[in-house]
Sequence to fold (1100 residues):
Amino acid sequence: MEFDTSKVFHVLDHGFIRVVDIMGDDTSIVQAARVSYGDGTKHVSQDRALIRYLMRHKHTSPFEMCEIKLHLKMPIFVARQWIRHRTASINEYSARYSISDNKFYIPNDNSFHAQSIDKKQSRDLDSQLELDSIKDYSEKMQHLAGESYQLYQKMIDDGVAREIARISLPVCYYTEIYWKIDLHNLLHFLRLRCKENAQYEMREYANTILEKIVKVWVPHAYSAFMDYSFNSVLLSKQCILLIKKVINKEKISFEESDISKSEWNEFCDIFELDK
Amino acid sequence: MEFDTSKVFHVLDHGFIRVVDIMGDDTSIVQAARVSYGDGTKHVSQDRALIRYLMRHKHTSPFEMCEIKLHLKMPIFVARQWIRHRTASINEYSARYSISDNKFYIPNDNSFHAQSIDKKQSRDLDSQLELDSIKDYSEKMQHLAGESYQLYQKMIDDGVAREIARISLPVCYYTEIYWKIDLHNLLHFLRLRCKENAQYEMREYANTILEKIVKVWVPHAYSAFMDYSFNSVLLSKQCILLIKKVINKEKISFEESDISKSEWNEFCDIFELDK
Amino acid sequence: MEFDTSKVFHVLDHGFIRVVDIMGDDTSIVQAARVSYGDGTKHVSQDRALIRYLMRHKHTSPFEMCEIKLHLKMPIFVARQWIRHRTASINEYSARYSISDNKFYIPNDNSFHAQSIDKKQSRDLDSQLELDSIKDYSEKMQHLAGESYQLYQKMIDDGVAREIARISLPVCYYTEIYWKIDLHNLLHFLRLRCKENAQYEMREYANTILEKIVKVWVPHAYSAFMDYSFNSVLLSKQCILLIKKVINKEKISFEESDISKSEWNEFCDIFELDK
Amino acid sequence: MEFDTSKVFHVLDHGFIRVVDIMGDDTSIVQAARVSYGDGTKHVSQDRALIRYLMRHKHTSPFEMCEIKLHLKMPIFVARQWIRHRTASINEYSARYSISDNKFYIPNDNSFHAQSIDKKQSRDLDSQLELDSIKDYSEKMQHLAGESYQLYQKMIDDGVAREIARISLPVCYYTEIYWKIDLHNLLHFLRLRCKENAQYEMREYANTILEKIVKVWVPHAYSAFMDYSFNSVLLSKQCILLIKKVINKEKISFEESDISKSEWNEFCDIFELDK
Fold:
């Protein structure tokens, strides 16, 4: 057990991540793989090399042999995305049983951005909204959150059922969950949720888990993940052909590439080619 | 295919349930069971009897052979519970990509109740709040929801990223999902979500699915479910002993029962015994 | 960590169960439940009572917060049933990568039984085959297993691919797996696999896990499971009515019961009534 | 419904694949995606383009909205690998309930190969065993399978329990399953099981499903899968650097590459570079 469970990683204005419990580490991955592949793994003599081999060939089951349990506090709109990952065990604080804390998330001034034009689902991180507008939005958000909690509090005090009283609380209110997941499914979660097209607030949690927890807990699995998954690229059949042409000094062009404009742009970005 | 997919079941003030697609029916359950149990099922000659036999003995896998896909509109606080069921496929309307409708749920006057004392998580359906108070809560909820949508709308109009703009919307706002699940897991969902300790708003959806859809789609599975699951009771080892004593005309009492007060009360309620 | 991982539980002629790793215990169940139900659990003051409450009401998610990893050696025909439980992580010894051990299972003389007439899928434990016949079957099984391993060995020595060579080995040959599962799903597995209609060889494993491992690891969860699940009975709607009639000293009979003969028989057995 | 359910695809010597039922098609993927991504998908005007976009960006949930049910007959050693895929519903013919057919698989003369030296888990498809040896193995396999069925038959006739009698049958015996899975998980299965390092007998089934069923059922999803998944390659961070160097006409070598020999070899093979 590597982690001090009293250590708390603070995220956003009122959120946190706490490691409650851990099962296994890099050696557990190796142990399970050697059962499965038996003599077949003898030629890969070292743990680090075997873990990289497993990651590269997507032999995922040995990574399921490690497990982690986290205690998390996050805004409801983050929790809503989080819980879409079905291969985990969850216990969430219930506002039907208990009284909600008066804690809500307001983006800081640097986290307000314009809607992205290209990336349909995200903010445009290069955009700059006017500071006056931001102050205005931020104040109004605070005010609304405050008003909604006041109504909530009044209804609770009057004896209205909690499950009704809470329905006016906005999704920026914080909730808490216990979340238990195996390493294979955690890495899958991180691959999706650390990426730039994930919402900024989600990424703050995912990056903390990746860099402060996984990296320390299972260093070999972490580095194999970074090289063979997180920082890898998937080349389509068409892009493989394009690379071959470039290597053979043939001309390539979007028009003859048989891929979409967005794939072409990504392709050129990765290999620093002229679009 | 039994269902007219243009038919819409309305739920709450703005919600709905629509059957998008269906795979299999009662005969598919029988077909799969006869593969598994082969000659072993020959003595159960009729489909209805076989389905009841499977349900009674919790041979659940044949019920997985039917599948249903629904299109649902429900308040976010209902969706949050819904999505905790992990054995389903889900596509939810994303407020990061798209603009939210200005549709929110306000309980009608008969749906406001006091917090239950016994049932820690629910409203007390026998309670009566004062009508004046209800009018007051209801108006304030409407007002808050309206204000929050106004702020949302303004931020969207100003070009603020959608994923930020939406965080002040309360959990009474509606969302939409496509939800695909097999019959076994659907029945498990209904067992939990039609029960009286489920939140009223959730039950409105669950009961519609049970009574308007499942009952028509798979009538044998429906009636087996009602008899052997939904309306059945689980008797603990201790309660079995109590029943035996009652049958043998021995005295029973809470003090000698070795069960908790709440289990004792439920036990007496089921069999109409004096507490 | 309660278990000495060098301790091995022997099962059948060459099988074993070894606890590799454990996460959590009874207190982890309580800890997770108190997050979910918050103030709602305060009235249940003691851990034991809370665990029993959770089990009785099928609040299953807190039981997912405990995890166990086992190393198992079992015949292939047992492994085939074992692996049907999908909510676990598995690494199995692969006969494509590695050479199979020359270890196979032969039932001992007391484990040969006739096909059951009633229970279509099982042996009849009350039946008695002739000892001479048993000796004969047993010898022939041994002989066949030996011959098949000889062919396997010859093909391996000749350099034939392992994945081909192994296809003549019978399902009584042993295999090994690493198996990691949470407590909720383990208890579900045990409920099915310790029951008398499970195959004897499977039950030998399941009972060892239940009585030698779970009972020591999570004693409160174990006893709650025994009372509210393993030794409980599910009474159908029809059987509840029958009980009420018995209590009210009304006559009951199979003819008027509206249940199948097998359900009637089970009902009478449970409550020691005349059939 | 595109498939004639009376049509049977024969595989190996006695196996088959039959489509029992289908839910959805390419348009169902698009329908679900447009719910999720709403306005965000409007710019991708055509179904084919949208499906390719979803596949490329691993937006997998819309592919879960299609479902297929197959009836399969396959050798036990194939079924054992098949069933390791946990995200499917299965009903298998049970040899505890029913009598096994006298059908077993013997590789034809072209399917006997030597153990591969490089690929630790597979046969070496370029190897050639001597025809005399093959004839010898083949005969012995047949003989053993025959003998084991004879013993099985005798025990069944004598009234021995089926669950015991069947344990001497080798894993080349055929079994039957009903298998229901969604398209996303089916494609994942096919990606693993059509690949050359899957066992030849498994690939025969997987390829039939891919080329005879999926290709006809969901042609857009099929071609997107082939381009962006099946025939794509994953380039590690290190390999991306190597490509950039090649493009910039810098020298690359295994020694300076920081990757394993096997990754280097694969890399050179993909882009037709000198090793």
